[in-house]
Write a structure and sequence with these properties.
Pfam family, one: TrkH
Keywords: Cell inner membrane, Cell membrane, Ion transport, Membrane, Metal-binding, Potassium, Potassium transport, Transmembrane, Transmembrane helix, Transport
Order of helices and strands: HHHHHHHHHHHHHHHHHEEHHHH
GO molecular function, one term: metal ion binding
Family: Belongs to the TrkH potassium transport family.
Protein name: TrkH family potassium uptake protein
Oligomer: single chain
């Protein structure tokens, strides 16, 4: 075990977190929130000093690492980042307890967007800025950011990218991994800047524009308003819809679009499926809201597609309370929680491409019943998928659903009703935010027990690391011998 490497990278991550925290200070000054200034300074000092100590103690570390170090680092980084990120919430007394602060922090970094704040607008605005910023830091992935900032990691870069699988599609990596990390962050920053400017042109002030841009591009969902997106005008909601939609698309396709490779978008089956699901479900709910509930057509269209896009991309913004709709709409929203965005996007969930492959596997099974001797390979974008990869995807979906069920059962044991328990489980794993029942879009997670507030962040991290990267470190074989 190359422990020095792991500790050194954790030190670097803590320095990055401290650097981002420093951007809270100007907002403290701007909003005259001097009562929390010392708390913010403490919050900055703790990760800063800890990070510097870890780096100094691990000088001369080897950059040669295996999968074991990468997996441990990926899992521990999110936990340590969550603890460090909780300090502004806890020390400023924005939350009532450290468990609440940790919940809010991990929910932010994993871009889940579930909140324990009962009155968001009463919280210090500087802390709400940090709350939105945690989305933006976690959206692309802290490991991806670390590799972009510290290209000297060299050989270790690819290992780290692969271990933090939900940040990007590792199959699209260039030979120089740090160069790809910089390109991805360049696209990420550009989209954030563009959205911020457009929101400001729509009459939203800079503070709220940048906070909602952080949350939209990272598909996080934290808002600075109690009514979330419902507070804003239809124009602002359409802007948020558009940027949530494109943030749920593989960032490798964004890069291809910039390079003029438009055929990559047209021929990409995951993108076509993703857009088709949004269109079909959004249209179905729109018609039900128009004909059954009697909403004006434009509002029915906007409310439906906003919620559909928000859920499938795992953003979690709400412009309406979908629990006030009919039960068919509830069911469609709940099913969308199991879909997810595209692989390589900032969105969470199982991911559309895995569902595409699973459906192809099912059709192949039917075909083999009719033609037992026929051999049919699974193809994606006209390329055959290795059978081992197909099996791993089917296994992933099974494990994902199994953990969702276990998580729901554990939450049931804490006293939650079935709808709240199981929707909270899937919404945490998928990084979505609101669920059904008492954790719906018009509610929050403040009423949950401390045990539930510990279970849910664990599910958030498991989902953010796409299950296997987190669970593998708990297997006995992981700690025996060398893993390559």
């Amino acid at each position: 075990m190359n422990l020095k490497f792991v500790l050194n990278i954790i030190g670097r991550i803590l320095l990055i977190i401290a650097a981002f925290m420093m951007t809270i200070v100007p907002w403290v000054i701007y909003f005259h929130e001097n009562s929390i200034l010392f708390a913010i300074e403490e919050s900055i000092a703790i990760p800063l000093i800890t990070g510097l100590v870890l780096i100094l103690l691990t000088k001369g570390y080897s950059k040669e690492i295996g999968a074991k170090e990468a997996y441990i680092l990926a899992s521990s980084a999110w936990i340590i980042m969550g603890v460090a990120g909780s300090l502004p919430f806890w020390l400023s007394h924005t939350t009532n307890s450290f468990i609440d602060a940790l919940f809010e922090s991990i929910s932010g970094f994993t871009t889940t967007g579930s909140s324990i704040l009962t009155d968001i607008e009463a919280a210090p605005k500087a802390v709400l800025y940090w709350r939105s910023l945690t989305h933006w830091i976690g959206g692309m992935g802290i490991i991806v950011l670390t590799v972009a900032i510290f290209p000297s990691l060299r050989v270790a870069s690819y290992r780290l990218f692969s271990s933090e699988s939900s940040g990007i599609d590792s199959s699209k990596l260039m030979p120089k991994t740090s160069s790809m990390a910089k390109r991805l962050w360049g696209i990420y920053i550009s989209l954030t800047a563009i959205m911020t400017v457009i929101l400001m042109l729509g009459g939203v002030n800079f503070y709220e524009s940048i906070c909602h841009a952080f949350a939209s591009i990272a598909t996080g969902g934290f808002s600075t308003k109690n009514a979330s997106a419902g507070f804003y005008t239809p124009f602002v909601q359409y802007v948020m819809m558009f940027f949530m939609l494109i943030s749920g698309i593989n960032f490798a396709l964004h890069y291809g679009f910039i390079k003029g490779r438009f055929k990559d978008l047209i021929n990409n089956i995951e993108l076509r499926t993703y857009l088709s699901i949004i269109f079909l479900v959004g249209t179905t709910i729109s018609l039900m809201l128009y004909f059954k509930i009697g909403l004006p057509f434009e509002q029915a269209f906007r409310d439906s597609f906003f919620q559909v896009i928000s859920v499938i991309t795992a953003t979690g913004f709400a412009s309406a309370d979908y629990l006030e709709w009919n039960q068919v709409s509830w069911l469609l929203i709940f099913l969308l929680m199991f879909v997810g965005a595209c692989v390589g996007s900032t969105g969470g969930g199982i991911k559309v491409i895995r569902h595409v492959i699973a459906v192809k596997v099912i059709f192949r099974l039917f075909l083999q019943q009719i033609h037992p001797c026929r051999v049919k390979l699974i193809q994606i974008n006209k390329k055959s998928i290795d059978e081992n990869k197909v099996h791993s995807i089917v296994t992933f979906i099974f494990i994902y659903l199994f953990i969702f069920f276990i998580g729901g059962m554990c939450l049931l044991a804490t006293g939650l009703d079935p709808a709240s328990a199981f929707s909270a489980s899937i919404t945490s794993m998928g990084g979505i935010g609101p669920g059904l029942g008492t954790v719906g879009p018009a509610s929050n997670f403040a009423h949950l027990s401390d045990v539930a507030k510990i279970i849910l962040p664990i599910l958030m991290i498991i989902g953010r690391l796409e299950v296997l990267s987190f669970l593998v470190i708990f297997t006995p074989s992981f700690w025996k011998g060398n893993i390559k």
